[in-house]
Amino acid sequence: MQTFSLSLRRHLPRALPLMTALLFAPAFSSLAADNKAEVAKAVANVQTLLKAPFHQTELEQDKSRLPVQMVQFLNITPGMTVMDMGAGGGYSTEILSAAVGDEGTVYAQNNHHLEQMAGGKIIQQLYTRIETGKLKNVKAEIWEMDAIPLNNQLDLVFWGNNIHDYYHSVGEQGTLAILKNVYDALKPGATFAVVDHIGNAGNDNAKLHRIQPQLINAVLEKAGFVAAETTDIYHNAADTHELSVFDPQIKGHTDRYFIKVKKP
What we know:
Blueprint: E1 3-5, H1 6-9, E2 21-23, H2 31-34, H3 36-50, H4 59-65, H5 67-74, E3 81-85, H6 91-100, E4 105-110, H7 112-116, H8 121-132, E5 138-142, E6 154-160, H9 163-185, E7 186-197, H10 205-208, H11 213-222, E8 226-231, E9 256-262
Parallel strand pairs: 1-2, 3-4, 3-6, 4-5, 6-7
Antiparallel strand pairs: 7-9, 8-9
Helix pairs in contact: 3-5, 3-6, 9-11
């Protein structure tokens, strides 16, 4: 694994970074090295979930979302307090709920806009998922993205496939306000992870629902996060980054950028 400065990162080919580490500031030691047994327990919890009758409708999503690899990369352990940011219908909420176990807590956060989308059908999917799966460790919350009322309470925040919508609508400064709120909600040393669909420079990425990785890197750094690492588990070389993420040719199989950072 390589480390290099963020400014240098911007000049590398767009096919990178794959399994690389970015250095915003001196890196933290790997939690995985110290907690392999605990991470293995979280993985076992997820593997049990994947076989549960109520989860069988999600098998197609499992193929592209790779829940076991996600948990391994994020070094999730039972007992953590985590947040699924912009949880939507709650697929990731369900995975995180299994990973942290009965002793953990998952905040499934959505904002008022999501609450009203599709006539409330999306938020109802989350509530139904919680009820059907008996996800007793999940707290469904309606909080605005920049008004999460937690302070130094979270071990992990996961934001999946959604930062592009905010970056393209409220710009870097608006996104920075959201990330600073996330920063405040995290405990010192905690992890913030972002996944999103990769876009090419010069394209209408707002229309395509994509974003350039270097824009994510820059705003994370400005928010004060450090010790960045990326993984290629969601890399798809067949995605040219030219199609809308909703195009049937690529939907559910986009080339996605997955980065995790730390709060110092």
